[in-house]
Amino acid sequence: MAEYLVCSEHEIVDGGRKVVACGDKEIGIFRVKGALHAWHNMCPHRQGPICQGRIYPEVVEPVDENCEVRTLQYNEGNMHVACPWHGWEFNLETGRNPVGRYRLHRAELAIREGQVYVVL
């Protein structure tokens, strides 16, 4: 296994990210609700750079009694990233696509003495 020093633990603010090269892999590290999550920078759909995508709250489409959507709402408790190539979205904490069939590939993190390392 190889370890790659990324940054200090506090350099990635809540809601922020850092994308780094680790050998021949790119890894995106995100801070969500105070916790760090690391994902390989490859969308399972068409291998796009998922970690460079837009970060936003989960979009909820409330359906009324006539089975129509009148407005969009956001679930601030679930932050998502959308692939810049085709818009596929994934939960930043679980790596799951809302449909549930696809998921991101997690990368292992180690934190020692205030420094963040990716372990591959």
From TrEMBL:
InterPro entries: Rieske_2Fe-2S (IPR017941), Rieske_2Fe-2S_sf (IPR036922). It holds the Pfam family Rieske. The keyword 4Fe-4S does not apply. Transmembrane segments: none annotated. PROSITE patterns: RIESKE. The keyword Nuclease does not apply. Its cofactor is [2Fe-2S] cluster. Belongs to the bacterial ring-hydroxylating dioxygenase ferredoxin component family. Keywords: 2Fe-2S, Iron, Iron-sulfur, Metal-binding. Residues 4-118 form the Rieske domain. This is Rieske 2Fe-2S domain-containing protein.
